[in-house]
Amino acid sequence: MDVSLQQFKRCDLVTVKGRVDSATAPQFSQALDGILNDSRFKIVVDMAGLEYMSSAGFRALIAAQRACRRYNRGEVALANVPANIHAALELAGFTNLFQIFDDVTAAVGYF
Q1: Which residues of 60-79 are buried (b: 16+ CB within 10 A; e: fewer)?
Q2: Which residues contact 60 (CB under 8 A, 6 or more apart)?
Q3: Could you report the per-residue pLDDT of 69-92, keeping only the tens digit for each?
Q4: Residue 75's pLDDT is what?
Q5: Number of domains forming the structure of the chain
Q6: pTM (2 decimals)?
Q7: What are phi and psi of 42, to 5 degrees?
Q8: How far is CA 40 from its chain centroid?
């Protein structure tokens, strides 16, 4: 798994590539926590290069979403969600928890 961070004026972009499973989810969670610890609460997660995400990855996303939405400070938006991961999000009932966009430009523009 490869995680890269990019900071913009209004939000942070987290680009995830590869597989987020139980072995790599802590690294993904640390990347999200690092942004939150800097008091930045508007996050876009670009999933274009993501092949697989386990329940541990979904837990990291939900924990970040909960921290961002606390006190109406911001939220986590998802961009370029692959069909298999979108289906897993839908099956778990998580699609209504996140704003989902077709591309990064629309997601960043949302903030």
Answers
A1: bbeebbebbeeeeebbbbbb
A2: 20, 25, 28, 29, 32
A3: 998 999 999 999 999 999 999 999
A4: 95
A5: 1
A6: 0.93
A7: -115, 110
A8: 14
